[in-house]
């Protein structure tokens, strides 16, 4: 496939007029994806639960980059949310050729947090909705022989950390799903990437517990969202199916996955 280099960082297939749809676009990595794609002239569909921040961002992107931006509210933990989003894009004739499944949050403790409904909703947000969005939006991409999908996972999905029975396992599923889809459809012009960031400055750690955790951590473990997004977009165009963003994490993750290191982690009860 011939790719048109539209920026030094990544490329978009020439002649495609489709939109990029970004979930979790009201903050953090999602908002950064919208900025970098808009800077390259891509029209967008933003979705999340909070409409205020998305409308403000949409106005900024239209003014700064002259791109078309639509805002659709959706709670991705609700059953049927991906199907409803897909229908809305069809009714409004918003052709999506670039999907970014980015919405996500910290999870409740599978064992300690009582009441299955919360866990069910969390699994819908982190796993079911990602699969359902691929199910809804990928067939048209495959038919057109052109499409891009980034599923935002995490290094937590590449590791097994003591005490993480919710977040990490959901991200492991996202990685496995993305790799399977990537190998099946790359030759048909549809690239799928599981992007695995390490600790990144966003609103993700805004809760009291995670703010406290962040305060106690060395600054060098943290990356800015623009670096993570730029590396992700570049890795996608290189045809990668799984990419760990940040040089530090690319060095660290293989070491942490060694059986010896895993044993030490279990022995000393270190939480990653
Ligand atoms: N920050 C990190 O250190 C880090 C590291 C690895 C991976 N990640 C992953 O990166 C992705 C983005 O997170 P972030 O760091 O950018 O966090 P963030 O700043 O808190 O943004 C999370 C986004 O997800 C949306 N969201 C949360 N729950 C939702 C729901 N039920 N329905 C629809 N949208 C929902 C939020 O929008 P609304 O609240 O408006 O709905 C927000 O736009 C997540 O998948 C996260 O797991 C983050």
Features of the shown structure:
binds NADP nicotinamide-adenine-dinucleotide phosphate; 7-stranded parallel sheet; Rossmann fold; 272 residues; alpha/beta; disordered N terminus; two-stranded antiparallel sheet
Write the layout of secondary structure elements.
Elements lengths: L3 E2 L5 E2 L6 E5 L4 H12 L4 E5 L2 H15 L3 E5 L7 H11 L4 E6 L14 H29 L2 E6 L14 H19 L4 E7 L3 E2 L6 H8 L7 E2 H13 L4 E3 L2 H11 L1 H10 L4
Parallel strand pairs: 3-4, 3-6, 4-5, 6-7, 7-8, 8-11, 9-10
Antiparallel strand pairs: 1-2
The structure holds NADP nicotinamide-adenine-dinucleotide phosphate.
Notes on the structure:
- By secondary structure, the chain is an alpha/beta fold.
- Helices cover 47% and strands 17% of the residues.
- The protein has helices at residues 28-39, 51-65, 81-91, 116-144, 167-185, 208-215, 225-237, 247-257, 259-268, and strands at residues 4-5, 11-12, 19-23, 44-48, 69-73, 96-101, 147-152, 190-196, 200-201, 223-224, 242-244.
- Helix 1 packs parallel to helix 2 (51-65) and helix 1 packs across helix 7 (225-237).
- Bound molecules: NADP nicotinamide-adenine-dinucleotide phosphate (NAP).
- NADP nicotinamide-adenine-dinucleotide phosphate is lined by residues 24-30, 48-50, 74-77, 102-105, 125, 152, 154, 197, 199-200, 202-204.
């Amino acid at each position: 496939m011939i790719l048109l280099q539209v920026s030094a960082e990544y490329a978009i297939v020439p002649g495609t007029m489709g939109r990029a749809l970004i979930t979790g676009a009201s903050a953090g990595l999602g908002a950064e994806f919208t900025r970098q794609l808009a800077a390259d002239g891509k029209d967008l569909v933003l979705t999340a639960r909070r409409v205020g921040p998305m409308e403000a961002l949409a106005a900024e992107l239209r003014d700064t980059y002259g791109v078309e931006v639509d805002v659709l509210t959706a709670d991705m933990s609700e059953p049927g949310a991906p199907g409803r989003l897909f229908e809305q894009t069809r009714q409004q004739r918003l052709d999506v050729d670039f999907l970014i499944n980015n919405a996500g949050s910290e999870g409740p403790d599978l064992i300690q947090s009582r009441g299955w409904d919360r866990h069910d909703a969390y699994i819908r947000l982190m796993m079911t909705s990602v699969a359902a969005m691929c199910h809804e939006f990928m067939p048209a991409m495959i038919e057109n022989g052109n499409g891009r999908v980034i599923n935002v996972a995490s290094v937590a999905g590449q590791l097994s950390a003591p005490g993480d029975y919710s977040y990490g396992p959901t991200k492991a599923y996202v990685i496995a799903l993305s790799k399977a889809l990537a190998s099946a459809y790359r030759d048909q012009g549809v690239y799928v990437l599981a992007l695995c960031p390490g600790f990144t400055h966003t609103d993700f750690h805004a809760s009291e517990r995670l703010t406290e955790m962040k305060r106690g951590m060395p600054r060098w473990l943290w990356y800015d969202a623009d670096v993570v997004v730029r590396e992700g977009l570049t890795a996608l165009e290189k045809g990668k199916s799984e990419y760990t963003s940040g040089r530090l994490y690319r060095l660290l993750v293989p070491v942490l996955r060694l059986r010896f290191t895993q044993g030490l982690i279990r022995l000393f009860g270190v939480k990653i």
